[in-house]
């Protein structure tokens, strides 16, 4: 399954507003930081996909991934400012 097919599959799943933590080889224990890094990686991959395809679907996938990265960054920033 290619990246575009995975994004299409994920786009069909309703957004619950939850942060998903992807297992990582990094040894850090900061879940919010890991969530932000994972979301940022997904957004970067989606941006590359959109740049290659220039379709409405790939742009929508990119914007959704960017929104998730922004939400994770906001959660991380809010915690660090307390």
Quickly describe the structure.
With 82 residues, the protein is mainly alpha-helical.
- Global morphology: elongated
Catalogue the unreliable spans.
Answer: none
Estimated radius of gyration: 13 Å
Q: Approximately how much helix is present in the residues? A: 55-70%
Main beta sheet strand tally, sense and closure:
none
Number of domains: 1
Give the termini separation: 42 Å
Give the SSE string: HHH
| Classification by helices and strands | mainly alpha
Number of helices: 3
Keywords, separated by commas or semicolons:
70% helix, 82 residues, mainly alpha
Lay out the secondary structure:
Elements: H1 3-11, H2 31-53, H3 56-80
Overview of the molecule:
The chain has 82 residues and is mainly α. The protein has one domain. The longest helix is centred in the C-terminal third of the chain and has 25 residues.
């Amino acid at each position: 399954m290619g990246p575009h097919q995975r994004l299409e599959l994920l786009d069909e799943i309703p957004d619950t507003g939850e942060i998903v933590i992807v297992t990582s080889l990094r040894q850090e224990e900061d879940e919010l930081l890991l969530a932000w890094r994972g979301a940022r990686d997904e957004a970067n991959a989606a941006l590359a996909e959109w740049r290659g395809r220039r379709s409405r679907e790939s742009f929508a996938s990119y914007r959704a991934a960017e929104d998730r990265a922004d939400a994770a960054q906001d959660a991380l920033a809010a915690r660090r400012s307390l």
